[in-house]
């Protein structure tokens, strides 16, 4: 596949990131697609039936191409004793929010096989993968179905693996990105050792012959222009769209993105057991240093606490995923944001010319 093939899906090189947990929804994806960008649904943490229902809703709302993101199954590498110790540490949170801790053994595959089956039976334009790379047979099956495939990568080595396996494109994620780092292998020895986006793009560009989608901290059209100049073919933005009225993120999360109380972000394992970037709050400060590697077991363990914190209006106990550029977020409609990003992109290109 070529960069021209990727460009067929949208008028502008602006992609709305798939944000699991509710922020990405049919309304947001439809608004982005209607403005000439590319919208995405996030199947992560949803049942196969819920994923399909969102696809159906989006098709009813918009005629434009869209994508669906899947989480790859995770190896069972969590240490049960470490999880038990962390559960004891979280007992105070459980008591404070008057809720039981979640069951860490709620599954590690995110119903991946069932979701792939649905997407092959009723194909969508694009499917992307996070937390790993499928086998070649999966890419071959999607190719036969006419679906364009994308793999999230955080290094040239992961990009090469995606190219060898048969992916059509890679989403190059810099360490600035909000939410989970999409590494193919979770190695605690490499925590916080990721590469910045503008350094990573040319490294991946020289390693593979696939189209590149740049992701990580992008909030302005000028930053999109820089990513394209560095070698990317399109830009994917998450935090920028999270505060849009069409986003399904909760009101506390949206407010926190630009609240001066939350002045910085960090990578943490506190909420999920996997490195993820979010706004620094009390939960992250108190539990981040002690959280064991263990995704999605820790995610399941803390789920009830995070939900209870949101229910009582306490952002200090929530996972407030956000990229490094969160303070640049603009509370605009998704369509207007796409238009403004495109205008800024064109202005930046003219200035460089």
Key terms:
eight-stranded parallel β-sheet; three-stranded antiparallel β-sheet; 353 residues; alpha/beta; 42% helix; 13% strand
Radius of gyration: 19 Å
Order of strands, main sheet, comes to 1-9-8-6-5-4-3-2
Provide the low-confidence segments as ranges: none
* Helix vs. strand class: alpha/beta
Range of helix content: 40-55%
The ordered H/E elements are HEHEHEHHHEHEHEEHEHEHHEEHHH
Strand content: 5-15%
Distance between the termini: 29 Å
CA-based shape: globular
Q: Which sheet architecture does the biggest sheet show?
A: 8 strands, parallel
Please tell me the overall pLDDT: 96
Number of strands: 11
Characterization of the model:
This protein is α/β, with parallel strands linked by helices. It contains 15 helices and 11 strands. The strands form 2 sheets. The chain has an 8-stranded parallel beta sheet. A 3-stranded antiparallel beta sheet has the order 7-11-10, with no helix packed on it. Helix 3 (48-61) links the parallel strand 2 and strand 3. The protein is globular. The mean pLDDT is 96.
